[in-house]
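I hope you will forgive my troubling you with a question about protein structure. I am sending you one protein, given as its amino acid sequence and as whole-number tokens for its backbone shapes. Thank you for your consideration; the sequence and its tokens are set out here:
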Amino acid sequence: MPHLLAASGAAGVLISVHQRYGYALVAVLVIGALLSLWAVRDERRLPTVRAYLWLSFAAVTLQAVFGIALLIAGRRPAEGLHLLYGPLTWVALPFALLLARGPSARREAWILAAGFTVAFLLAVRAIMTG
């Protein structure tokens, strides 16, 4: 994505923020997966994982706002697939929470770990298609 880094002005700053924030999101999602796996072993951690999931979703939403602002400014990603991976990343966490409902806390923790993992993989792919 070197051509994007050459952009100047407000759009250049927004591109830089969007790119760097994407890397931070990857770390946030890895931590969520690890917390979820911890909750598999210790069910008392599930409320923390649920809260972390919603905070992670808010962080992904902020990244989506940056991306939408770039689109409005006329900046398109290097590959069109980026426009698919971004929204799928945004949907992955609440979808996992929806699927995780049920009587088993251990099952819920596994599903949330899977949701964080899917969101992580989609975010990495979004970065790659920048």
